[in-house]
Design a protein that fits this description.
- By secondary structure, this protein is α+β, with helices and mostly antiparallel strands.
- Among the domains are: about 35 residues; about 220 residues, Beta Barrel (Thrombin, subunit H), CATH 2.40.10.
- Helix content is about 25%, strand content about 25%.
- It has ten helices and twelve strands.
- The protein has a six-stranded antiparallel barrel. It has a six-stranded antiparallel barrel with strand order 7-8-9-12-11-10.
- Strand 8 and strand 9 form a beta hairpin.
- The longest helix has 24 residues.
- About 20% of the residues have low confidence.
Length: about 375
C-alpha cells in the first residue's frame, strides 16, 4: 500500500503533536507532584505581605519613609519617622507608638528630662554594677562581664533634621575614645545627630558625622563614623575582629524599637541583647561578606555590634531580608568585621584589632 503525500503529512503532524504532548507533560512533572495546599499558603503569604506594604504607603503622606524606601527599592531596618508627632516633639517622646492618641504635647514634654533622671519609687532597683573589661579579650568572657562591656560600648543614635525634628533612631558602638560606628542608612536622612545610653546619662550627647561610605545599597558597605567631644570615663571601646566562623556563637546588642517601647525610660532605655549563631557567610561580587545569623534584630538594631563571646566585633547588624508577615521567616544580616576594617583603614581611623576566634566555648 502506497502512502500518499497528504497521508504522509497527516502522519507527521500526528507524531509531532504526540511528541509535543509528551514533552510538555514531562516538563511539568514537578508542578503536578507539589501539594496544592502548600502552594496556596505561599501565595497567600506573599499577597498578604504585599497588601500590608501597599497599605502603609497609601496611609502615609507623599514624603512617608515607606513610600521613599519603596521608590528607592530599599529593604531592611530603615529609619522610621514618628508619623503623628508634631515637629517640635523632643527626643524624650521617642518611645511613643507611631500614630498613638497619647502623643504628648510640647508643654507636657518640655520638662521631661527631669522625671527621666529622677528615681521612681515603683521601679525595680538596679542590679549591682559589674565593671566592664578595659582591655580586649581573646578568651570567653563571663556573662556579666560581656553584658557590662557591651552596655558600656553600645549607644542609641538619634537622628534629626535641620530644624531638630526627630526622624528616627538606630544603634552604634564605640571603637575609639570618642568615635563610634553605625550604619550609613541610619543617619543619611538627617542633619543633626545625638547619642544616648544609660552610661552616658539622661541628656543626649551631640555627635558629628565625620565619614560615610559612598552609599547604603544592600550588599554594599554601609558604614558611618560619628564623633563626640566628651564622653564619661566608663565608656568602653570594642575591638574589631575578622569574619566569624559558621555556627560560632554571637551576641547582638542595640536598641530594637519593638523591644525598647516597653522600657519606662524612653530617652535612655536599657541595651537589648540577643544570642544566636552564625548561619552562613555570603561573599558578594564586590568581596563584601554578609554574615547571616540568628540573633534577634528589628528596626532600630541597625548599626549595633555583633560580637563573639570574647566581646570582639565580628559584624555590624545592618538589614533584615524578610517579608514582614507572620507566615514567613526572616533572614538577619550583618556586614562582616573585615568589611568594617576596610572602611576604617580607608579613613585612617584608629581601632583595636583582634582575632574572631575565642579560646574556649561558652558554658551553658
Amino acid at each position: 500500500m502506497r502512502l500518499t503525500q497528504r497521508g504522509f503529512l497527516i502522519a507527521v503532524a500526528i507524531l509531532v503533536v504526540l511528541n509535543l504532548f509528551v514533552y510538555l507533560w514531562w516538563m511539568n512533572r514537578p508542578i503536578v507532584v507539589l501539594a496544592p495546599a502548600q502552594m496556596n499558603r505561599e501565595i497567600v503569604a506573599g499577597l498578604q505581605t504585599e497588601s500590608q506594604r501597599l497599605q502603609l504607603i497609601l496611609d502615609g503622606s507623599c514624603e512617608s519613609p515607606e513610600l521613599q524606601s519603596f521608590r528607592r527599592g530599599e529593604i531592611g531596618p530603615l529609619v522610621r519617622r514618628e508619623q503623628s508627632a508634631p515637629s517640635n516633639v523632643p527626643p524624650q517622646a521617642l518611645g511613643q507608638r507611631p500614630g498613638s492618641a497619647n502623643t504628648p504635647t510640647p508643654s507636657a514634654t518640655a520638662n521631661t528630662p527631669t522625671p527621666v533622671a529622677s528615681a521612681n519609687p515603683g521601679q525595680v532597683p538596679p542590679a549591682p554594677a559589674v565593671t566592664a573589661p578595659t582591655e580586649p579579650s581573646a578568651a570567653v568572657l563571663p556573662q556579666d562581664k560581656l553584658v557590662a562591656l557591651l552596655d558600656a560600648a553600645t549607644v542609641r543614635v538619634l537622628v534629626f533634621d535641620a530644624k531638630m525634628k526627630f526622624l528616627g533612631h538606630g544603634s552604634g558602638f564605640f571603637i575609639d575614645t570618642n568615635v563610634l560606628v553605625t550604619n550609613r542608612h541610619v543617619i543619611e536622612t538627617g542633619k543633626i545627630f545625638a547619642i544616648t545610653s544609660t552610661l552616658l546619662g539622661s541628656e543626649p550627647l551631640p555627635a558629628k558625622l565625620v565619614a560615610v561610605t559612598k552609599d547604603s545599597d544592600i550588599a554594599n558597605p554601609d558604614f558611618a563614623l560619628l564623633k563626640v567631644e566628651q564622653v564619661p570615663s566608663g565608656v568602653r571601646q570594642l575591638a574589631i575582629a575578622t569574619d566569624p566562623q559558621v555556627l560560632q556563637t554571637v551576641v547582638a546588642a542595640g536598641y530594637p524599637g519593638s523591644d525598647i517601647r516597653g522600657d519606662t525610660n524612653v530617652v535612655t532605655p536599657n541595651t537589648v541583647f540577643s544570642q544566636g549563631e552564625v548561619s552562613v557567610l555570603q561573599r558578594q561580587t564586590n568581596n563584601l561578606v554578609l554574615v547571616l545569623h540568628t540573633a534577634k534584630m528589628s528596626t532600630g538594631s541597625s548599626g549595633g555590634p555583633l560580637v563573639n563571646r570574647c566581646g570582639n566585633v565580628v559584624g555590624v547588624n545592618t538589614f533584615i531580608g524578610a517579608r514582614e508577615d507572620q507566615f514567613t521567616d526572616r533572614s538577619l544580616y550583618a556586614l562582616s568585621a573585615t568589611s568594617l576594617r576596610g572602611f576604617l583603614d580607608q579613613y585612617r581611623q584608629t581601632y583595636t584589632k583582634m582575632s574572631s576566634a575565642c579560646t574556649s566555648e561558652p558554658k551553658n
